[in-house]
Design a protein that fits this description.
The protein is mainly α and 450 residues long. It is built from 17 helices and two strands.
């Protein structure tokens, strides 16, 4: 072990010790503060204990599991599209995001996103290290607070994993880890608070049912920043090495998205059913529209085009799933699919940037289109939260889309620049040509001969 590796391991070990010590101290404070009240609390438990809806709780628990499955689904989707020498690196990035963001969320991320509002910009320290989970969340009083926290955690996990599609096949793994940690805390949690946690965009009337701006726009524009900052691959034209694996991943994403959107109703109710139907309809329309575009302009429909359209539709319906009718969802799916097709096949080629797996072209553009169309198609007949005419709501959606987009893009550029100036963003040319599976992880996904 050389000196640099020794100091890296030492820094990680000390950070873990500090986090562990702080969390134990925080929990001890909670226990100490509540101990004198235990006897009276037991006597009054039948009066003061919150009553939760078991059906709603069961649905959110299931939805939380569905959404978690989306990240392995994303790993397969991305993994099938890269060179065979890089599939394990993509899978590793997605699973590492699951590990890193889980610990960040339960320690710091959740309280920054959903703690007591501070000037409309960030949450307070109410839920630091999961303190205060015994009291219901005002956002979902019908389910246990810890269930709501766990559901929101899965959104926080997949957001930075989406960005990995832009810099696949050329980013150092340690740089990925550092960026994921910093982006999750400094970019994702504030945006989440602005829209969902009581921040200024939510108070202004922004409608984002399941994360159009919070997840897809923020991750999509960060992906664009990544593509611009890290530069092109040495061999940017490389066909997918395993399309069946990518199709499996797309199928898992489609399945998991029912929890992503349906669970965002925060109950087993009519709104959850509407969200499931609009999700299915928009996705089907988008997959069909992309295939038609390929058929008309490229003479043949392709499986890669079909699954790309499917993902575009899933992304676009996310902000409006619980605000629009199924018929409106068809238009959202078609419009978003055509817009993403144009971005991926025309605009990206003309501009010349290398967004490896079209994270910006599909998630960024699809999220932006979906968020704006929410203002056009949202209906009070579907959700009573819709109280403004389309023209007024569209302007609110415009603000609620581009403020997070600008913040995420600029913040991501700064983070990438800092990392590049310190430890470097990308691997050297030899490692890139060899493949990241071997050079970053000393593993090989395929051991047989061609």
């Amino acid at each position: 072990m050389n000196t640099i590796q020794f100091w890296k391991m030492g820094a990680i070990f000390m950070a873990l010790i500090c986090i562990f010590s702080f969390s134990i101290h925080a929990q001890a404070q909670v226990l100490e503060a509540t101990a004198p009240m235990e006897e009276s609390a037991v006597k009054a438990s039948s009066i003061e204990a919150p009553v939760y809806n078991t059906g709603d709780t069961a649905w959110i628990l299931a939805s939380s599991s569905f959404v978690l499955l989306m990240t392995p689904g994303l790993a397969f989707f991305y993994g099938g599209l890269v060179r065979r020498e890089n599939i394990l690196s993509v899978l590793m990035q997605c699973f590492m995001a699951m590990c890193l963001v889980t610990l960040l969320w339960v320690t710091l991320g959740y309280t920054l996103a959903f703690g007591t509002d501070k000037a409309g910009l960030i949450g307070g320290w109410d839920y630091l290290f999961l303190r205060g989970m015994d009291k219901p969340s005002s956002l979902a009083p019908n389910i246990p607070h810890i269930v709501f926290m766990a559901f929101q955690m899965k959104f926080a996990i997949i957001a930075p994993a989406l960005i990995a599609g832009a810099y696949a096949e050329r980013m150092k793994f340690i740089s990925f880890c550092i960026f994921t940690v910093l982006w999750s805390l400094l970019i994702y949690s504030p945006i989440c608070h602005w829209v969902w946690g009581g921040g200024f965009l939510g108070k202004d009337g922004a409608l984002d049912f399941a994360g159009g701006a919070v997840v897809h726009v923020s991750a999509g524009v960060a992906a664009l920043a990544a593509a611009l900052m890290i530069g092109k691959r040495k061999n940017p034209i490389s066909p997918p090495h395993n399309l069946p694996l990518a199709i499996l991943g797309a199928g898992l994403l489609w399945f998991g998205w029912f929890g992503f959107n349906g669970g965002s109703a925060l109950g087993a109710n009519v709104l959850a059913g509407i969200a499931l139907v609009t999700t299915q309809v928009a996705t089907a329309a988008a997959g069909l529209a992309w295939s038609v575009m390929d058929w008309v302009f490229h003479k043949r429909p392709t499986t890669l085009g079909m699954i790309s359209g499917v993902v575009a539709g899933l992304v676009a319906i996310t902000p409006s799933a619980g605000f629009v009718t199924p018929m409106a969802a068809i238009w959202i799916g078609v419009i978003s699919s055509v817009a993403c097709w144009l971005m991926v096949t025309v605009v990206k080629v003309k501009l010349g940037y290398d967004d490896t797996l079209d994270a910006f072209g599909i998630h960024g553009i699809g999220g932006i289109i979906g968020a704006l169309l929410t203002g056009v198609f949202a209906s009070a007949l579907v959700n009573p939260l819709v109280t403004r005419p389309p023209s007024e709501q569209f302007m609110i959606q415009l603000k609620a889309t581009f403020i997070p987009a600008i913040f995420s893009f600029v913040g991501s550029v700064i983070l990438f620049k800092i990392i590049d100036m310190t430890i470097g963003l990308r691997v050297d040319e030899r490692d890139e040509r060899t493949g990241l599976d071997l050079t970053q992880h000393k593993e090989n996904a395929y051991t047989g001969l061609d």
